[in-house]
Amino acid sequence: MITIWRRLRHVLSWSRHDADLREEIEAHRALRQDAFERDGLAPGDAADASRRALGNVAHAVDAARDVWAIRTADSVSQDVRVALRGLRKSPGFALVAVGTLALGIGATTALFSIFNSLILRPLPVRDPGSLALLTNGSWSYPIWEQIRARESDLSDGAFAWAGQRFDLARTGQSDPVDGAYVSGRLFDVLGVTAIRGRMITPADDSAASPSGPVAVISHRLWRQRFSGDADIIGRQLTVQRVQFTVVGVMPPGFFGPDVGRRMDVMLPFAAEPLIRGRETRLNDKGSSWLQIMMRLKPNQEIEQTNAALRVAQPQIVEGATRQSVLTEPLTLAPAATGNSALRTRFETPLFAMVIAVGLVLLVACANIASLLLARALARRRDLSVRVALGSSRWRIARMLFIESLLVAAAGAALGLMFASWSSALLVRQLSTSQNTVSLDLALDWRVLAFTAALACLSAITAGVAPALGLTSIASGDVLKDAGRGIAGDRRFAVRSALVVAQIGVSLVLVVAAGLFLRTFASLNQLPLGFVPEPLLVVELNLQASGGRPEERGARVERLRDAAASVPGVRSASVSSTRQLTGGGWSSGMVAVGDGPMVRLRSVGRPSLWLNATMPDWFKTMGIPLRSGRDFEAGDRVGTGPVAIVNESFVRQYLPGEQPLGQHVRLGFDAQTRYEIVGVVGDAVYTTPREGMLATMYVPVAQRPPKTFWPTVLLTINAAPGQRAAVERDVAAALTRADPAVAFTFGTFDQIVAATVTQERLIAMLSAFFGALALLLAALGLYGVVAHAVRARQTEIGLRMALGATSSSIVRLVFQRVGLLIAGGLALGLAGSLWAARFVETLLFQLTPRDPLTFAGAAAVLVAVGILAAWMPARRASRLDPARVLREG
Amino acid sequence: MGLTRTPSDLLPGTLELLILKALVSGAKHGYGIVEHLRLTSDDVLRVGESALYPALQRLLLNGWVKAEWGASENNRRARYYTLTARGRKQLTAERAEFDRMVGAIQQVLGTT
Lengths: 888, 112
What we know:
The complex is a heterodimer.
Chain A: H1 2-12, H2 14-38, H3 43-54, H4 57-68, H5 71-89, H6 91-120, E1 131-135, H7 141-149, H8 151-154, E2 158-167, E3 172-173, E4 176-182, H9 186-190, E5 196-197, E6 214-217, H10 219-225, E7 236-239, E8 242-249, E9 265-268, H11 272-276, E10 291-295, H12 302-320, E11 331-334, H13 342-378, H14 380-388, H15 393-430, H16 445-469, H17 475-480, H18 491-524, E12 535-541, H19 552-564, E13 569-575, E14 585-587, E15 590-592, E16 608-613, H20 617-621, E17 625-628, E18 642-646, H21 647-653, E19 663-666, E20 669-680, E21 695-699, E22 711-718, H22 723-737, E23 742-747, H23 748-755, H24 757-791, H25 793-801, H26 806-835, H27 851-877, H28 881-887
Parallel strand pairs in A: 3-23, 4-9, 6-8, 16-21, 18-20
Antiparallel strand pairs in A: 1-10, 1-11, 2-4, 2-10, 5-8, 6-9, 7-8, 12-22, 12-23, 13-22, 14-16, 15-19, 17-20, 18-21, 19-20
Chain B: H1 14-24, E1 28-29, H2 30-40, H3 49-62, E2 65-71, E3 77-83, H4 85-110
Antiparallel strand pairs in B: 1-3, 2-3
Helix pairs in contact in B: 1-4
């Protein structure tokens, strides 16, 4: 072991040791010369004699050095030097090869590092392997209290948290950050310690907290908002209009137990009633809003804890739920990688993209293989001289392989840089105005190992073909043959096969890009049912300032009037529920007239979507009133409940009947009979993808005042081209009218875009990969055709001298090209047909084997192929036969 | 140029053993070791450089000697080798082994 270490140290300081050795032997000779002089020889003779006595110094040095060196390492380093020299001599090749691989490896690494951060990487906490998450879904606070009471029986510590968006603004327009309510022991159980101050403790998480309302903030928030001030501890932080004292800063790598969200502000659950007032959910047995994790006891299997949990389940259920809704057995799942809502959503698309980018890398490798092979063939004289001089074929193959390994290593290094830039860009694309996605993309050993493996794989893939191609180098033939290739030369077989494979793989990617682009385009062209361009949506948060829910109706009307009086506002109205979030307010059962309650759609999906609106909301949105009337000021609590329905509702529940005057009852409130007073056009409620769904609108003013929503949406229709100015003026007007209200502006453009984030990203990526593969395949085809033309120029010149026209020469070249393209298309179509079924779930209004997309992709490839072959073909047809024959 | 002993002429490891022994009496440079071996063997053992230096490198590699640059008697820069503690231990072990070998060889040669 020690000798290995010494050996290594020796190799590292190789040149110094070498110099030492030479100096030492020279000293040896000098000492001997001194001795000869003492014996009476003349100084000149003594020097000669000593030199003779010494024998072969070079041999002595070599022999001494060999003691240390490992022989192969030495000759490999020689090969590396030769390969480097070769690459330096052809910078064009080196640049194209390294650049191609950098793109391929970089893109693959970028996607893998997202995959790694989202799915593979354990939480940056103490012993993440012993963490377990209570599945499936979320839990109420009373359930958490029951589990906390049994914490030490069940586990080595348990904690709960609830992700929240917190508004940090003191007044007016909101300033949202992601954060969470956490239970007192979260940091203790996770083993996360503060880098400044302290973390939240169980004492903070009680109504009688001795420190008052406290908060801990993330390292990022500390650096960005407080510019890393050392005296951060004890400073005040406004969260949802309530003052908190900052008691600590979390360590830099810690983002919370949710992967994909970065929690910048954490508050104890005990602070929730300060913010939500009497609407606190801490005692609410009906609302599930938090996640629970445990640390398993040492040496305890998850199944043992599950068993203990099930024993305790009856008491937990009795203590914490209104009715016996908790029928499924409580189950823990391993949670070393944390909890993430993004995982299920992005698993399939991410996987599809990793496959796509892997295919791109394959095409890139094929290109490099083809280039390396061309180089090897160009140097075949040089190589066959080496073979003739006794170099083993294995040695030459190794030399070529080292060349591809060097290219791959350089490509991987550049690719890592490209990856860290592009993965951050991709993650930013996932964020929407409503939902910030944040992933820690720091390189870790998994990503580095993955990239290294990719580089090796690329080197092997790219290096095998040249080595195979070399079998055609028989030392004798090549020396005689000075480049007078003729048709059907076996040397082109390998490169042609590579080009066919490239075209095939590119076709698969172009088909995928076509399918995803068409999906995205058709999602974007879906009718919304309203006119989004002039609209501004302002979320009004009425809760932060305290005050009783009963007063909110009047406040909202005051705010609406303030907004409506701003110049440039054509109309303004209020609704209770945000559209286009994928969910909303709904009823599972509906009864029309005196009929029975029916469930229109499958269990778990609502039959009817609901929204509460103020008068003029339909006008503001640009939703047409088909018949009847809009809500009026007279529709108040105490007057008969009224409702407006959309055309889909009429189609589904009242086909062929006159809807006005009919009555509707809802499953959760069967006593109230809503009279239909109007019918409006359809508008998208959940997502454009789901289309038009039966929807019923009720007046805001007829809802019970005690349960008035803590947040409502103020929709503003601005005059054309004035949206930005209106936003500024409305913000000022709202703050003047009600200094306590917190509000956030948005536009329907952003909201609509947010519903297709995933599709947009997939379309963008697949288009990029498809284009990249196409470009690489075109380059590959161009290279092989150009090379073939050059190698066959004697033959072409001969044909021309014998009377072939230039068009017949073009035909000759294209015959070959046509074969290559046809082979590639056949391969690609077969591959696409097979692979198409895997992307079915990601498509919209398209069958995965959409003939139009397939034909289009094939046409694109043929066009690109002809373009790539055109230049060399034309060059061939313009050869001067006399010159070629003279020089060839 | 007389008889030059190279490793293949000696029993394997003998040159190293001789060098270690030469260093017992104090630090020596390469030429000093050669001279020491020549004088103490009455001119029989003349070690060539192409055998000496690889042997010295092997001893360095095993950590049995260490080398330091110093000034020779007539003020030339020379590299001096000293025995390490491990080298001393190795010498004792190899010496016993060598005696055993020589005894065995004599026994073989003595048998008629």
